[in-house]
Amino acid sequence: MTQRIALTGGIGSGKSTVAAMFAEKNVPILDLDQVGHDCLRVGEVCEQLQITFGAGILDAKGVVQRKKLAEKAFSNSTATEQLNRILHPVILAKEQRWFSQQSAPYVIIEASVLLESAGETRMDSVVVVMANLELRQQRVLQRGHQDAARFDKILQCQCDDSFRRMKADYILENSGERRALALQVMCLHEQWMHDYG
Length: 197
Known about the structure:
The chain is 54% helix and 13% strand. By secondary structure, the chain is of the alpha/beta class. The mean pLDDT is 92.
């Protein structure tokens, strides 16, 4: 039976880098953040978001503008919970459909807010990518999509590292060189192929 392995971590921790490393090993990957972005194009989801966060999140064509939605949804924890209540059922249905089509020994489900929504309960294992906070902020700011204030707001809406460590079955440390991270990924992959293959 295919094992469902969650990959999570705080903003800027390196989840996408780790997911790409597993993908290079032909492991099926589902990026739930991307699934969530895709859900913003679904009519009833757009309607619920507009009702909850206002028409200001839509562009002239009625399409949800992710940046404006994020400004409102990550302004406080209540707004984030509202966003999650709208998106999570749709995302979960897409995840279930994707998973039912998989036959690999294990799959990776990448999600930034998995633990905040108790999503670990539907996983067989949880991998948490950890990196020190200064490095995480540096990575995010270098991407150019967020400024320091926005990074701090997102950080406030995510669980803290002590909670992540408590929920983790495996921890990947990503405060050093990429080569060290790749070695950790390779070791996990080999272990899982042995255990589940």
